[in-house]
Amino acid sequence: MVLLVFVGLGGFALEKAFESALLQAQQDKLEGLIYALLGAASLTEAGELTIALDAVPDRRLREPLSGLQAALFNELGVMVWSSSHTLDVPPPPHLQVGEWRFQRLRSPDAFSLSFGLRWVDSDGNQPRQYVVSVIDDTSSFDRQLVIFRRTLWLWLSATVAALVVTLLLILRWGLAPLRKLGRELQLIETGQQTGIEGSYPDELTPLTRDLNAMIVNEHNQQTRYRNALGDLAHTLKTPLAVLRGVSSDGNIPSPQQQQLHEQLSRMQHIVDHQLRRAAAAGSRTLTEPVVLRPLAEKLMMALAKVYGSRNIRFDNALDPGLRLRADQGDLYELLGNLLDNAAKYGNRRVRIAAQVDGKLCRIDVDDDGPGFPQQPEKLLERGVRADTRKPGQGIGLAAVREIIEAYGGNLTLERAPLGGARVSVILPLR
Questions:
Q1: Which of 239, 276, 356, 381 is surrounded by the most beta carbons within 10 Å?
Q2: Which residues of the chain have pLDDT under 50?
Q3: Model-level pTM?
Q4: pLDDT of 387
Q5: HEC states along the chain?
Q6: pLDDT for res 392
Q7: Cα torsion for 23, 26, 30, 35, to the nearest 10°?
Q8: What is the pLDDT of residue 102?
Q9: Best CA proximity match to 132, nearest among 162, 163, 99
C-alpha cells in the first residue's frame, strides 16, 4: 500500500511537471511567433499597422484551417489586422506596453498569447499603442499530454507490478523462518512435539532457545509440583489411617467414635480437595485446547447417577466446537463443582451454556432451585455455605474462584432464567 501511494504521488507529480513544461514550451513558441510578426509589421498608407504574412516564417498562419491565427488590435480594442477573415475572438484586455498575457481559452479551446506595444515610426508620427494576439488550438498540446500520460502510467504500472512481486518474494523468503516457528509451536500445542527442533537464523536463535527453556522449565516445575503433592498425600495417609484405627477402639464411647469418624472423613476430604486444587495447572500458553461439550457430558452422566433418585434433567447447550486452552483437570474441577452445586441445590433441572464474545468465553450454569441468598458474594469465601442442611464442606465455589483467577477470568453469581441460581464464569479463549 505504501509503495502504491508513493508511486501514485510520484506519477502525479511527474505528470504535473510535464504539463507545466509543455505549457511553458507552448508560451515560448507563441512568443517567438509574436516577435516574428512584429518583424514583418509595417504602416499602411492610412497610417495603420499591418503585417505581411509572406514575411512570417510559420506557414500555418497562411492556412485557414491550421488552428494557428493572429490578430492586431488598436488602443480602442478594434481589430485592425488578422491572419484569417473568419477570425472571431473577443478583443484581449488592455495591456500596458511590454506586458504579456498568456491564457487558455474555453471557446474556442485554444491558447492565447497577447503582447502590448507602442509603435513609433521614423516619419515622426504620433506613437500609437497596439495589442498583438496569437491563438493556437490545443490539439497538439492535448495529444502530447495524452501520449505522455499513457506512457508514464504504463511504465509506472509495470514497475509497480515488478516491485510488488519482488517485495512479496523477499517477504516470503524473509518470513519463512517465522512461519516455520509458528508451525512448530502448533505441533507443541497439540502434543506432537516436546520442543522447538528446527534450525533458525541468528536473529531468531535467542527466541527459540528461550522458548525451549521456558517449555522445559514449565514441564519440570509441574512435574516437581505434582510429585511433591503425591509425597504429601502419601505422608498424610498413614497418620489418618492410624487415627481412623484409634477411633474404632471399642473402649471409646459410641458418640465420640461417630464424632471422630466425621472429623476424620472431613479431614480426608479436605486433604484430597486441597491436593487437587494445588495441582491445578493454571493458564498455560503451549497446551492443546480442550473441547468443553464432551467433558460436560461425562460430568452430567456421572451426576445423573449420583442424583438418580431426584430425576434431575441435565441440559448440555454447549457448542460442540467450543474449545478452551486450559488444563483438562482444571476444567473437570471447575465444571464438576458448578454442576454438582446446581444438582445439589436445584429441583428438577440443570442447564449449562456458553457464548463467545471476542476473546472471552462466558459459561453459564443454571438451576431451578431457590437461588442465592442475600449477599451471594460471601459464598465465594471458604467455609461459607448457602444451605447447611446439605452435606458439604463449603469450599466448592471458593475453589472454582481460585481456578478462574489462575486463568485471569472472573466469576459472578446471578439469578437464573430457570428461576434458581446462575453461576457465570468468564475465561479468556487463549
A1: 276
A2: 382-394
A3: 0.49
A4: 46
A5: CHHHHHHHHHHHHHHHHHHHHHHHHHHHHHHHHHHHHHHCEEECCCCCEEECHHHCCCHHHHCCCCCEEEEEEECCCCEEEECCCCCCCCCCCCCCCCCEEEEEECCCCEEEEEEEEEECCCCCCCCEEEEEEEEEECHHHHHHHHHHHHHHHHHHHHHHHHHHHHHHHHHHHHHHHHHHHHHHHHHHHCCCCCCCCCCCCCCCHHHHHHHHHHHHHHHHHHHHHHHHHHHHHHHHHHHHHHHHHHHCCCCCCHHHHHHHHHHHHHHHHHHHHHHHHHCCCCCCCCCCCEEHHHHHHHHHHHHHHHCHHHCCEEEECCCCCCEECCCHHHHHHHHHHHHHHHHHHCCCEEEEEEEEECCEEEEEEEECCCCCCCCHHHHHCCCCCCCCCCCCCCCHHHHHHHHHHHCCCEEEEEECCCCCEEEEEEEECC
A6: 44
A7: 90
A8: 93
A9: 99
Q: How far apart are CA 22 and CA 9, in angstroms?
A: 20
On whether the CB atoms of residues 418 and 351 are closer than 8 A, the answer is yes
List, as own/partner pairs, every contact residues 95-99 make where C-beta atoms lie below 8 angstroms and the sequence separation is at least 24, other chains included. 95/131, 97/129
Domains detected in the chain: 2-144 (3.30.450), 205-278 (no CATH), 290-428 (3.30.565.10)
Let me know how long the chain is.
Answer: 430
Amino acid identity, position 236: L
The reported pLDDT for the residue numbered 391 is 45
Mean pLDDT, the chain, as a whole number? Answer: 83
Residue-level pLDDT at 278: 57
C-alpha cell at 225: 509440583
